[in-house]
Structure formats: structure tokens, C-alpha cells
């Protein structure tokens, strides 16, 4: 019979590679992460331990999340799972990691993931149309809620919106660390009063959040589902009772571990603010045991490295993808186009914004910045005159086209070959 709680924490020993995705009968084959940072010397090795009640609960939670959304990688799914469990141990943490659920366009599963989080995190507090003053007045220092912010692009999407919502950004930044208060006067006698800000928060939106928020977050870059990728529709009457039952069992497992969690200082594969942000997830994994100490360190190292390598500039959305596809179609589906040719054709479209983009029209540098958000980069391409120039290969766009600007296929057509 398994004990109710795992054995006391001990420092992990050096570990092996990440687990491969597991095939599930009757479902599309799981995909490997498309851009995975190789394991390096900065990642320690942790051997898998025996399964425990805690590891079984995390396994079940990961399975439940995967029913409703398709995260961009197995590591991202592991991170979301551990973040949810960490909300049930908030009194133990020095830092409250944000979960930034972002995507380059609509219908990437951001809101659906927040639906699942709402039913599994500790004391969820939805902040739709909620003022910062109401939020910090709702935060209990000894037992903070979990903040859930959807459609963050309507709060921070433009400089004007960001300026108008500067207090919300300040709240999200301050609440990342314990003992960061805001002082407000209250009552008729205007007595100064300190309000706590410390609380874990999940923030979803189109495009990146402000840099100061992203820097304090575990970043989940959602993608639109491709054809053939299926998820279970979320139905409140059917699905919420099971999620609430799981939430209750996770809370019952976590509550006795608060003091132990508060005293742990695990070995981390990253440093500085990234270590502060990921530490609660690593501690939860170490307390749970099983394969989770290994999985969390792989997820941490790879996801932090990916964010460090990401460009700060934001793309213009799926419009650039659709316009580039029209260029390739007009050029009879050539294998490649030089950057110069592609920019020429984009600027020639009278209905597109690219001729007037910036001061002198869309540039090669700006085009590269937009496409990197979709994991598309330029390279050397061979021209008809057998010379080589910088350009783009058509096949690099196929996955992004399927996800962000799908076509309507004729009846009887095979969509699997429509972009071939």
C-alpha cells in the first residue's frame, strides 16, 4: 500500500533524457517538439523514482488537461500541470510564477486552457472587467487566490491600452514576489492601509504580454490545431465535477506539505529570475517524485532557453502568412523565393499594407521578425540562374498555413495533400 505522501525530499542525483511522447490508441500520433533545445551541461540528471500518490495525481492532471487542449510540446504540458499543482501550495512560495498563455492569433486554445485551469487551480479568481483595486483587496496574504486573466491583449495590446492599465501591470509585477505591498487610503478618514499583492496568476492573450510580465512567467506559446488534431469539447455539466474532484484530491495531498515545501531549495537548471519563477514547479515535482523531478528540469531548461532565444518583436498576425501563400500560388507554387522577390510581390498587392509598412515599405528585417514568431526563418536558396540568394523555402510555411490560414477543401479532396 502506498503512503499518503511521498518520502521526504532528498537532493536528486544526475539524470537522463526527456521522455518521448506516448502514443494513445485511437488518437493522432503525438508530436515531438519542433524546436527543442538539446540537453546541455546546465541540466542536471535525475533518475526516475518509484511512483507515489503525488506522482499519480500529477499524471492524472496532465491527462485531464491534454483531453481539452494541445499544448505546443510535452514540456509545456508538464509545466502547466506542475503550475496548477503549485497553486495549491502558495503559502510556501517566495515567488508566485505567472503562467503566460500566448498565441499569435485567435483560436489557439488559450481560453479553453483557462477554462480547465479555472476548475483545477486553488481558489480561482476571474478578473474580467475587474479593477486592480478590487483585485488587491481580494488577495488574502495568508491564503492568496489564483488570478485568471483572459484576453490580456485588450489590456496591454496597444501603447494606449498599456498606459491606461499601468496599475494592472504593476500589480502583476509586484505580485510575483512575497511582501510586495500597495498602500491605499481607506475609509472616510483616509487611513493608509497596506494591501498584499502576492498571488499566482495565469494570463492569456494574443501576442506577447509586456516584457516585465513575460520575464516573470512560465510561457506557454499555444498554436492553432492543425487538421487531424482532435480535442474533447469542454462541457461544464459533464466535465467540471471530475475536475473538481481531482482538484480536491490534489489540495488534500498538498496541504500537509506546505512547511516542507517552504524549506526546500532544490538544484535548478537555470539562474536568476528564471530560477525564482520555476522553483515552485521544481519543488512540487520533487515532492511528488516518480518521473516528475526529471521532467520538470528538462521542461525548465528547454523552455527558458527557448524564451531567451526568442525575438522581442511581435508579428503582425496571420495576415502575413496568408499574403505570402497568395504570392507562392501566383508564382505557380515554386519551391522557393528570394527575400527580394517575396518583398516585391508583397508590396505590389494594392490591398495589402506592406507597401506602406513603416517608412519605406516592408523590409527584409521586419519580414524576418514577423515570420520568426511562426518558427519560419530565411536561408540560402538557389535561383533559376543557379546563383544563391537569401530567401524562403515554401515547405517551411506549410505547417503555419495549415494552422493559421486553412483553406476550404472541395468535397472529396484529401486535405493532407493540399499543401504538398
Automatic annotation (TrEMBL):
Residues 1-11 have a biased composition (Pro residues). Coiled coil: none annotated. It comes from the Bacteria. Residues 1-48 are annotated as: Disordered. Residues 12-26 have a biased composition (Low complexity). Residues 221-404 form the DUF3631 domain. This is DUF3631 domain-containing protein.
